[in-house]
Amino acid sequence: MKIFSAEQIYKADKATLEKQDISSEELMERAATQMFNWMHVRMQGAPVKIHLFCGIGNNGGDGIALARHLFEHGYDIAVYVVKYSDKRSNDFLVNLERLKDRKIWPVFLDDKSDLPNISQDDIIVDAVFGIGLNRTPDDWVTKLISHLNDSKAFILAVDIPSGLFTNCVPENLDSVIKANYVLSFQVPKLVFFLPQTGVFVEQWEVLDIGLDSEFLMKEETEYDLIAKSEVLQFYRPRTKYSHKGTYGHALIVGGSYGKIGAVTLSSKAALKSGSGLVTTYIPECGYQILQTSVPEIMVLTNGKTSLETIDFDIKPTVVGIGMGMGIGERTAKALTEFLKVNKLPLVLDADALNILSKNKESLKYLPEESILTPHPKELERLIGKWKDDFDKLKKVKAFSKKYKTIIIIKGAHTITFYQGKGYINTTGNPGMATAGSGDTLTGVITGLIAQGYTNMQAAIFGVYLHGKSGDLALEKTGYQSLVASDIINGLGQAFIDLFKVPEQVSEQQEEDKKENVK
Ligand SMILES: NC(=O)C1=CN([C@@H]2O[C@H](COP(=O)(O)OP(=O)(O)OC[C@H]3O[C@@H](n4cnc5c(N)ncnc54)[C@H](O)[C@@H]3O)[C@@H](O)[C@H]2O)[C@H](O)CC1
Ligand SMILES: [K+]
């Protein structure tokens, strides 16, 4: 799914009005009707107090129109207009009049108003600011927003939590609504997926308001959201007359005394993600450990307790390098010498990245489309400190362009970056923040490249599979007990899940749908 910028959404609106020959107020009505249906299906007329806080722009207009629908279906509503400016939008005014026609008089709030009473059992609809926010809200609006957050009532945000910008991190985080649920029109917003701003979005859902499909299809975006339908197109089925040679040979390089586990996990993950052969290149101290724990894997050794040279006479398809490798002088030199002569596709992780951070001139030896999988600290060593999430994205983009590398920013929503574009992953969970999880990811990506996936496909698909496997494992382990080996063991189910058809809608839902059409 594409993630559009605010400018692109306004362009999509314009294209829709022209193509479908409708007014902007009709489009607002679609948005409000969709939100009402969403609420009505869940609330079924429940006598819960709903407080609607509406700004004076189109986000506020959406809220006012929603209030009308709720009123007409007998819901107990209280409507507030947050008068943060005199520049009321036309569609807001049209809907305000419609509300007044029904004898509903909103409470107008300004800097002198008392804060309204809200019980924690009530529902708040947040329609104060939408994607049009362009400066920090005034102090009194921030106070109101903090008051709503403190109420502990369930907050349903319209389009985006009020106070969140679409293209930067707010200076004052007290001015942002902490939404329990966001109903976002047509497309999710980038800020839902970044650590500093994503915390304001507990859950989100997209409501289709019928924006022009041609525009949505043709318009190029800087970010894509990656879910099952996006990765399925990469999937390479196995063929009947294939043999292990068909699926490539992954070489995993790394390990040092006390850190043989890291390479073991990567190697096993490469194997379990389908690499035909896997060889692990480690210091001698790991020989027995590896041969015993993963008998399917071949082992080459060099150095006693850490690697001294990286030099082999096998012909692997791809090399995954750095896990548990250490950053000692000899190992660092071994890596640099290897990079100078290497022509194979590379996946670089952990200490390989730490060594490169200290010897940035060696980055020029990386083949194009090498994959770098840093965790936050490793990323900081590579690109330097960042001011906020947006600054981080800018720096990663510049780095990836300069060295022509694919960078995977690991996190709650891992983002794969290449050629100026970010691919945001949707699988994974906090249970995966555990030792060896990253080593496993490197193994999965290396294993996919071995089988013939392009580096970009392997990066995006690998991140998805790794997360999905963690999600499936979670059902048995819970968050705390999920360990990297569970992720490896869940990989098979993650592949199988790709082809699971979503559950059928129930008969009752089908009936409801028919009713709606009537
Ligand atoms: N295609 C869609 O997704 C549709 C979205 N709709 C809704 O429209 C809003 C965007 O509406 P817009 O009027 O452009 O912006 P806001 O409602 O966010 O209003 C802000 C308004 O106020 C000014 N402003 C900005 N920041 C401040 C500030 N800190 N203090 C005071 N005033 C401020 C700014 O100039 C704006 O004019 C979108 O989110 C959806 O909810 C449509 O209803 C349907 C199509
Ligand atoms: K909002």
Automatic annotation (TrEMBL):
YjeF N-terminal domain span: 9-217
Reaction(s) the record says it catalyses: (6S)-NADHX + ADP = AMP + phosphate + NADH + H(+); (6R)-NADPHX = (6S)-NADPHX; (6S)-NADPHX + ADP = AMP + phosphate + NADPH + H(+); (6R)-NADHX = (6S)-NADHX
Keyword presence, Lyase: yes
Residues reported in the UniProt entry to bind (6S)-NADPHX: 58-62, 130-136, 159, 262, 324, 375, 439
Residues that bind K(+): N59, D126, S162
Cofactor binding note from Swiss-Prot or TrEMBL: Binds 1 potassium ion per subunit.
Positions annotated to bind AMP: K410, G411, A412, H413, T414, G438
Cofactor(s) listed in the protein's UniProt record: K(+); Mg(2+)
Family, similarity comment: Belongs to the NnrE/AIBP family. In the C-terminal section; belongs to the NnrD/CARKD family.
Known function: Catalyzes the epimerization of the S- and R-forms of NAD(P)HX, a damaged form of NAD(P)H that is a result of enzymatic or heat-dependent hydration. This is a prerequisite for the S-specific NAD(P)H-hydrate dehydratase to allow the repair of both epimers of NAD(P)HX.
Name of the featured protein: Bifunctional NAD(P)H-hydrate repair enzyme
Native source organism of the sequence: Maribacter cobaltidurans
Organism phylogeny: Bacteria, Pseudomonadati, Bacteroidota, Flavobacteriia, Flavobacteriales
